[in-house]
Amino acid sequence: MAHASSYQPTSSFGQWLDARLPVGRVMHDQFMTFPTPRNLNYWWTFGGILTFMLAVQIATGVVLAMHYVPTPEGAFDSVETIMRDVNWGWLLRYSHAVGGSMFFLAAYIHTFRGLYYGSYKAPREVLWILGVLILLLMIATAFMGYSLVWGQMSFWAVTVITNLFSSLDAVIPGLGTKLVQWIWGGFAVGAPTLNRLFSLHYLFPFLIAGVVVLHIWALHVPGNNNPTGIDVKGPRDTVPFHPYYTIKDGFALLMFVLLFAVLLFYAPNLLGHSDNYIPANPLQTPPHIVPEWYFLPFYAVLRAIPNKLMGVIALISSIAILFFVPWLDTSKVRSTRYRPIYKWFFWVFVVTAIVLGYLGSQPPEGWYLIFGRIFTAYYFLFFLVVMPVVGLLEKPAKLPGSITESVLGPDEPLPLSVPKARQREQVL
Amino acid sequence: MADTDHSPAQSPLLAEDEPTRRDVILVAAAGFAAVGAAAALWPLLDQMNPDQSALSVATTELDLADVDPGQAITVMWRGKPIFVRHRTDEEIAAAKAVPVDDLPDALARNANLPDDAPATDENRTTKGHEGFLIMIGICTHLGCIPKGQAPGDNKGDYDGWFCPCHGSQYDTAGRIRKGPAPQNLAIPPYAYTSDTKVKIG
Ligand code: HEM
Ligand code: FES
């Protein structure tokens, strides 16, 4: 949100630098005084958590790479060496592996937050699209990282997922096979494949960091959305980012890190599959191939469709459809809080995503397959039918007059200059 | 091309939207740069294709003398498992009994035959060696290794191979009968170099 800069460097070096490279000014204006809606709840703390998790993954990843060997003969053993011999290796590897899960947990909460409060609607479409792009890059990164362990699950996940591209053979014969061999660098998943997955697993997090900068930039042009979904109408509706939200985000981060620590120190393998502690064997497929939990809903969608090419198209669409949400939703109000009908569809959608996750972990037979199809159908109907149609038919509930009114109630007579929250604080 | 208005080189007599010499140079230069960039990009992409060493280790020889009827062996070729099964007479008869029109994939998928050869049992093997079925042991769905080579394996409803990943079932000629796999198990290029010796690739 454009606001006048109040940055005043006091030291002479600060003034000197400010005239040459005003990084201090940008930081001050964007992260200290930045006017932020006064009513943000805890669902708004996950952006900061995500930034923290990206830093954790990069820091632990770069040091893991100092010990990791990207060859079919060396990979599995080098991960075990990290776990047993490298100083603190167990901590680094478990932080990175559990960190991947925590990163996705935060990303999914953050995304559902955006869906619930309509944060994708004008003027935040580009912000939303950049977020979906980050999610896609994260999915690619985690997939490639998981392959590096070169256990049975790693190997067979790479095999099955790269083979998805061979479905293009049904469109242009030979194209899919060529593409898959290009990805593999051979005629099967092997040494060249592992080496390039390592190279790209190292690269992608830095691409993510780049898109995160754009994402925050795109956030700071219109400013934050908020739980009411109504626009900021004046200075009374906002508080400076620091200390109000640095403290709130910091507290939420602490709670999140606590959960991270419990998993990391007490159940580091809870979310992983034990088959990945068996070295990769290209001649034997494990009885059940299951991806990490954060891919399960998409895996369920893939398997719900009996045709190979259509399954792949459904899988890709299930994520890509998020790009179009800003235009699929026809509602005039942003926040689901004020949408009495849509609200129900939204929560059914949340349940759908969770149930699909469960179904993705089960073999695709009998009732699992039937329910997989029903929930996959709802997943797409939610975006393609519910969003456009309910938005047109529904009469939204009455919106509060302003953000401040939603916090303090409509009747409070207020001095124009000092928000109530701050008056109270001065007393304390 | 609006900003060419300010060009001192532009003749005032030219109409507003007429292309100038400068426009031509601009388009030519940008086009040339684009071609150059695309040419520079190609090695960066093509390096990922299978390299010379991957292409060169492309043949495997094996001896079938010791493989008795009912037995199966698996060898590696180009990093892929090759299934060899010495079929029993009953297995061959079962495969021959199926009309090609009833198969989900009616093509032989045999690299030694024309692409449109039908999936008869004869076309899945070599004349004079009908007992031996030699195939790439990779499920044509998403690349898992079907069960059916080891004695205790689940061979599926058609007594051939069963893929544990998504339940594809292949018959005793390696043809897809049930499940999501779109094609019959592929037959690699191979030739008998003697009565019992086979060269794959
Ligand atoms: C977006 C950030 C990242 C995510 C989501 C991510 C995710 C993952 C995952 C899920 C694994 C498998 C963990 C396991 O089961 O053991 C992994 C492994 C690995 N990652 Fe990352 N990673 C990220 C960033 C990085 C970076 C920047 C590097 C730097 C080179 C790196 C290096 C490695 C290495 C060497 C391994 C194999 C060792 C191991 O399994 O612990 N990662 N990554
Ligand atoms: S990979 Fe064999 S059935 Fe899917």
Summary tags:
A: 428 residues, mainly alpha, Helix Hairpins, two-stranded antiparallel ribbon, 17 helices, 2 strands, 61% helix, 1% strand, B: 201 residues, alpha+beta, Rieske Iron-sulfur Protein, three-stranded antiparallel β-sheet, binds protoporphyrin IX containing FE, binds FE2/S2 (inorganic) cluster
| SSE run of chain A | HHEHHHHHHHEHHHHHHHH
**Tally of discrete structural domains of chain A:** 2
* First and last CA, distance of chain B: 58 Å
| Spatial separation of the terminal alpha carbons of chain A | 30 Å
Uncertain stretches of chain B? none
Briefly summarize what is shown.
The complex is a heterodimer of chains A (428) and B (201). Chain A is mostly helical and 428 residues long. Chain A has helices at 12-18, 23-32, 46-64, 75-84, 89-116, 125-148, 152-163, 175-184, 191-220, 241-266, 296-304, 308-320, 325-328, 342-360, 366-393, 403-408, 420-427, and strands at residues 35-37, 238-240.
Walk me through what this model shows.
- With 428 residues, chain A is an all-alpha fold.
- Chain A folds into two domains: 24-284, Cytochrome Bc1 Complex, Chain C (Up-down Bundle), CATH 1.20.810; 292-402, Orthogonal Bundle (Helix Hairpins).
- Chain A has helices at 12-18, 23-32, 46-64, 75-84, 89-116, 125-148, 152-163, 175-184, 191-220, 241-266, 296-304, 308-320, 325-328, 342-360, 366-393, 403-408, 420-427, and strands at residues 35-37, 238-240.
- Chain A has a two-stranded antiparallel ribbon.
- In chain A, α11 runs antiparallel to α12 (308-320).
- In chain B, a hairpin with a 6-residue loop joins β5 (161-162) and β6.
- Helices cover 21% and strands 18% of the residues of chain B.
- Chain B has helices at 21-46, 52-56, 89-96, 121-124, and strands spanning 60-63, 72-77, 80-86, 132-136, 161-162, 169-170, 176-178, 190-192, 197-200.
- Chain B is an alpha+beta fold and 201 residues long.
- The chains are: A mainly alpha (428), B alpha+beta (201).
- Bound molecules: protoporphyrin IX containing FE (HEM) and FE2/S2 (inorganic) cluster (FES).
- Protoporphyrin IX containing FE binds next to α3, α5, α6 and α9 of chain A.
